[in-house]
Amino acid sequence: MFKSLACLFALATAAIAAPALQVEVPAPPPPGFNITSLGVLGTGCPPGSTYYVLNADKTAVTVTFSEFYAEAGPGIPIRNNRKACQLTFGVSVPPGFTFGIASVDYRGYYQLDSKVTAQQQSYYYFQGQLVQATSSSLLNGPVDGADYTYRDSFDLVSTVTSPCGQSTVLNVNSDVRVSNSGNSKGSGYLATDSIDTSLSTTFNFQWQTCKS
Fold it and tell me: Shortest CA distance to 192 belongs to which of 84, 108, 119, 121?
C-alpha cells in the first residue's frame, strides 16, 4: 500500500451575501465562530477514521482521515475503484459575518499504469442553498509513483457563501476513483492519506462583514 502526502483544501470568502445584504471588505476572524459538530459518512471515512481540530485563531479547521484511497487492477474488487466521504460541519457564525469558498488546494500520491486514470472531485454547499462549488482533478497514466498538487479557484461573484450571521451546516462531498477500463491488465492507486497514513485536510477561512 502506497502512502501519500497530505491533501489541502483552502477555503476562503468572497462575494455576495443574502438578498438585501451588502458584503464589505475581508475581516479578521470574528469572536464567536466555532465548528460545533462534524458528521461523516462514506466508504472513505468509516467510523473511527476521521476527526477534526479548529486552530487557535479560528482561521482553519483540519480534518484527518486514514482510509481515503481508491485502487483498480487485476484481483482488486470493483468496490475499491471508488471511495467517497461526506462531511457535514455544524458552523456557528457570529452576527454580521459570512464566509465562503474561494479556492481548493489538495495534494496526494498516485501510481498508474499506461491508460489507467484517477480522479478526485469535491462539492461544497451550505445546507438549504442551491448554489454549490465544485473542484476536480484528472490524472492519467503511466506514472510510476508520484506526488501531485492541484488548485481550483472559484469565481468570486458566484462562489458559495454562508447565510449572513446565521448558524449553518457546511457540506463537503468528496470522492476519489481509479479506472483501468482502458487497460484491463493495468493497475492504479490514488490516495490522499499522508506519509503517516493519515490524510490531513485543512479548510482555511477568510471572513467578510455584512451590512444591511
Answer: 108
